[in-house]
Amino acid sequence: MDITKLILESNLINFVIAVGITTYLLIKVIPQSTSKRKTEIQKELHQAQEAKKAAEAKLEELKVEIENAKKESLNIIESAKANSEALRAQIMKDAKQELDRMNANASREIEMHKEMTINTIKEQISHLTMKNVEKTLLDKKSEIDKLIKLKLNKDLKEQVA
User: How many Cβ atoms sit within 10 Å of the Cβ of residue 73?
Assistant: First the structure.
């Protein structure tokens, strides 16, 4: 039994030493380690809160920038609408002036062609009238010549008889 007792005593001593080392570690090393880790976690948590605040501030800045950009885009759109309306009005005015000018030119051209046509018709009527008069005069001349010949013949016969 001596050996068993010795083994048992040796195991008991080893167990007490292990419990003592474990207790020492739990009392001295682990609290320092956890305290250090706790400090690091608090520091990281503080940094995360600072980063969150900075991100929120940046988010607010960006929201303001977005709102300003929206206002600016609305101003640009309104300006573009006004410019396009002014441009449309100017184009319509220019087109109306051009149309009026073209109508005036067309009216002058129509009037000129009308006068030319009337003059041409007058010339043709005059020419036809002259031809008709010439023909009538020629026809009448023949008749008059015949009448004159008849009268001369009649007068000659009267004088001869």
Answer: 10
Model pLDDT, residue 161: 64
Length of the chain: 161
For residue 146, give both structure tokens.
């015949």
Q: Which of 67, 140, 48 is nearest to 59 (CA)?
A: 67
pLDDT tens profile 79-112: 999 999 999 999 999 999 999 999 999 999 999 9
3-state secondary structure the chain: CHHHHHHHHHHHHHHHHHHHHHHHHHHHHHHHHHHHHHHHHHHHHHHHHHHHHHHHHHHHHHHHHHHHHHHHHHHHHHHHHHHHHHHHHHHHHHHHHHHHHHHHHHHHHHHHHHHHHHHHHHHHHHHHHHHHHHHHHHHHHHHHHHHHHHHHHHHHHHHHC
Written as six digits, the tokens of 158 are: 């009267």
Token pair 């051009």 is found at: 98
